[in-house]
Amino acid sequence: PQGLYEVLEYESVLDLKDKKGHLAGATKPQRVRFLQDNIIAYQDQIWGDGDIFVDYRCSPGKAVDRYREGHRHHVLISLQETKQRGDETEFHITRRIRNGFTRSTEEWQTEINHPTKKLSISIVFPRTRLPKRLLLITQNSGKTFPLGPEHRHVLPDGREKARWITTMPQLYEAYIIRWVW
């Protein structure tokens, strides 16, 4: 099999908490199916500007090690139990980011490193600083698409959520939402 697991559903959410981009929350719920027997660990990857590891949490499992490789940080998560081929687990990874989105043009990147069935990328903007322009960029293929009004909606509290969804995203592709605000 290709890899240790496949991702059935992957949701990448950035929640910008203030209009200056000083505080944000990131969540990554992922439902995975294991493709091999005797799996005891899971790997998360993180990158970006600012302090990117504030209050890092994962469930199930426990973050037991992390190391940097180039611009990425790898987090080794002990599953604290053995998974077998065909087992499914839903991971919830959350963290806060300080001073990560302080420029007038910013981006949120999600990379596909395992076979993935469904991908959803969302950014929630504070009601006092909504995006002026949103683009979806597929890094490896070099394509750029504007995200129009069909990808944006206002939440009950006045914040705006931009969301892009796809099925069968390209393996090893990086999907980037870039915005001007």
Shape: globular
The ordered string of helix (H) and strand (E) elements is EEEEEEEEEEEEEE
| Number of E-state strands | 14
Query: Mean pLDDT, rounded to whole units?
Result: 96
Distance between the termini: 43 Å
Percent range for helical residues? Answer: under 10%
Give the class from helix and strand content and strand pairing. mainly beta
Counting H and I runs of at least 4 residues, what is the number of helices? 0
Q: Detail the poorly predicted runs.
A: none
Lateral strand order in the biggest sheet? 4-7-2-1-9-13-12
Describe the secondary structure blueprint for this structure:
Blueprint: E1 5-16, E2 23-34, E3 39-46, E4 51-59, E5 62-69, E6 72-83, E7 88-98, E8 105-111, E9 118-125, E10 133-138, E11 143-146, E12 152-154, E13 160-167, E14 174-180
Structural features, described:
There is one protein chain. The chain is built from no helices and 14 strands. By secondary structure, it is an all-beta fold. Strands 4-7-2-1-9-13-12 form a seven-stranded mixed β-sheet, with no helix packed on it. A four-stranded antiparallel β-sheet has the order 8-14-10-11, with no helix packed on it. It is globular. The mean pLDDT is 96.
Q: Features of this protein?
A:
181 residues, mainly beta, four-stranded antiparallel beta sheet, 14 strands, 64% strand
Quick overview of this protein structure:
This protein is mainly β.
